[in-house]
Structures are given as structure tokens and as C-alpha cells.
Amino acid sequence: MKKTFAVSILAAAAAGLSANVAAEGPWRASLGVGLQTFDGEWDLDDVATGVIGIERQLSEDWGVEFRYMNSSPDHKYNDNIDADLNQGSLDLLRYYGGERWKPYAAIGLGHAEFDFDGAGDNAVTQANIGGGVRYLFDDSWSARFDIRAINSLDVEQTDGLVTLGVAYAFGDSQAKPKPKPAPMKPMEKDTDGDGVGDTTDRCANTPIGVVVNASGCPLDTDGDGVADYKDKCPQTPAGRQVDETGCKFVLTRTEQIRMEVNFASNSAEIPAQYQAEVAKVADFLKKFGGVSAVIEGHSDSSGADAYNKTLSQRRADAVKAALVTRYGIDASRLTAIGYGEERPIASNETREGRKQNRRVVAVLKAEVSE
């Protein structure tokens, strides 16, 4: 019987692994404890049950899990009969919910060994159905409550199991893409004759005789955006607006800049790749001291409305705080408003759409006269 149980466990684990070849989610290892109740015909007392699980999340909505359970229930009427119960099952999980709370439904098939000391063994095939809820503390740790009805198909007896546990997520969330082969390097050609080949020349058709940099673009010594060979005012102070000849620009016009920062799910921390967006706004505000900014925070529709409202406000406040503390912008020039899920720019039915909706936006305008 022990051999039969071991073979069943290995078969279930192999099936779980093969089902996850194309999986995109993390692995989760879980440990829990629960209470198992038995159908009256088993003549067994309720018993504490230890549960070990390994789960692979296939997508945002689906997961597959292998669970092993062990307990030692007492016989209700005979103190001389001790039972040792080993159970294993392969379960399919369907997740619902938002960013932290994730309810799920579960269904599975497994095998159980009842080893009655002095009264023989009993091996049964078991099907289970139920569900629960997972609470995500962060990207790695989560807590979980689970309740199942377990039917022994061979004897038509139904038991119950309620468990509470913790889980740790690990591994890559997506398969790493294969590196693309390096393209063949074409023969160099220099159409404009500036000494920089066409494959690296970022400024094609440079006039003959103009001094260029390594990218094939004309030099701009004073950094005003006008190449030296066109610049009639070659020593313009840094940051000054100039006309097409490189001289002081006397014109009233509207300058505008837009910032958009996207956030991770359930996070108000500015991702590293968007720090440049914040810095861009800070430079604009420093350049045009009379401009004020309204910073709008948004979220996707996952979770409760009130929570999303608060989360979007935290995101807007995070960008405002970065402008004040990191770049020295006066807080009185900044207003942060959280709109929650009220103003989506994409569908909340897809992962990419939800990602676009988790954002902070600011549009700034200035009337410039020099």
C-alpha cells in the first residue's frame, strides 16, 4: 500500500509539472495546518492536519497545485486502533479579485492511504471541491484560507478539511526571451562624405566641410540646439531660448510638457524607469518659475473603489514628494489629486489595460516671452 501511495504521489507531481511547461506565473511553496472532519462511517475523530503544497500560477487567473496532507486520527470507539492518514491531490485553482485579496475556486483529484494499526489498510481515490481566499502581503509572501469537501470515490464517503497557511513565491514570472541573432553588418557607405558611415550617421546630408561628432552631427559648442556652422551667436548662455540663428529668441509662445508614470500593481513606489519623467517635469518647473502643476493619480479597477481612491492619491503624493524632496520644487506650486478608477484610458479587462490605468499624469503649460 505504501508503494501504491508513493507511485500515485509521483504521478500527480509529474502531471502538475507537465501541465506548466508554458506557465508565465511564479511558483509558490506553502505550509499550513487545518482541521479535518470525517464521514461517520469511518468512525474517526476530527483531527489536526498538516498540509504542504507547491503551486505554479499559470496566469493572473489560473493556477495548478500539488498538495500533500498528513494526519493521525483516533478511532472513536476502539483505543487500540490508531490511524495514519496520508493524502495527495493535484488541484486546479481559478482566481478572482483585485490586487491584494484574491478569492479562488478549487477542484482536484487525489489518492489517500488509511493505515489502521492492527486493522489493515484502506486506499481510496478522492475528488475534492471547494475554494478559499489568498491575501498578498507583497510580491513574495501571502496568507491563505482554504475549505474543501473531499469525496472518497471508492466508498462514497465525504469528509471536510479547513486549513490556514502561508506561502512564499519564487522563480521567474515569465519565460526569458531568446536573444535575437546579431544582424549582419553591411558594408559602410558615407553618402554625405562627413567621415561617418551611413549606418551610424544620425545627421544625414551634412553640408560638405562641416565638422561633425562621432554620430555624424554638426558640433554645437554652446549647446543651444543650433549647429556651430549656423550659429551667429556662438556663446549663448546655457538654457537660453534661441532662434534658428542661435541668437536670443524674442517671441511669446506656449511651452508645454507632459509627464506620465505607470505603477506596479498595488504600489505607490515610482519605478526606476520613470525617474527621468519626474526629472523632466522638475526641469520644466525650474525653468519656468511661474508655472504650477496639478498631479493626477489613477488606478485600475481591481479592488474596492475606496481603496483604489486612496492608492491613486498615494501615487500622486509620491510624485509630488519626489519633486519637492529630490528636486527642490516649492510644494505650494504642486497639487496632488487621486481619481481612483474613475478615469481609465484603457480596458480594465486585460492585464496591459490595467497597467496603463495605474498611472500618474501631469500636463504643464507656460507662456514664454524673451
For the residues shown, what is the average pLDDT? 81
Shape: elongated
- What is the total domain count? 2
Report the structural category: alpha+beta
Order of neighbouring strands in the sheet with most strands:
1-2-3-4-5-6-7-8
Please characterize this protein's 3D structure.
The protein has 370 residues and is of the alpha+beta class. It has two domains: 2-170, Porin (Beta Barrel), CATH 2.40.160; 252-369, OmpA-like domain (60s Ribosomal Protein L30, Chain: A, 2-Layer Sandwich). The protein is 16% helix and 37% strand. Strands 1-2-3-4-5-6-7-8 form an eight-stranded antiparallel barrel. β2 and β3 (62-71) form a beta hairpin. Mean pLDDT is 81; it is low at 1-7, 9-14 and 16-23.
Which structural traits does this protein have?
cell outer membrane, 12 strands, disordered N terminus, 60s Ribosomal Protein L30, Chain: A, porin, alpha+beta, OMP_bac, 4 helices, Porin, 370 residues, 4-stranded mixed beta sheet, transmembrane
What's this model, at a glance?
The chain is built from four helices and twelve strands. The longest helix has 21 residues.
What are the SSEs and their pairings?
Blueprint: H1 2-18, E1 27-37, E2 47-57, E3 62-71, E4 83-95, E5 101-116, E6 120-136, E7 141-152, E8 157-170, E9 252-262, H2 275-287, E10 293-297, H3 305-325, E11 334-338, H4 351-357, E12 359-369
Parallel strand pairs: 10-11
Antiparallel strand pairs: 1-2, 1-8, 2-3, 3-4, 4-5, 5-6, 6-7, 7-8, 9-12, 10-12
GO molecular function: calcium ion binding; porin activity
Pfam family, one: TSP_3
Subcellular location: Cell outer membrane
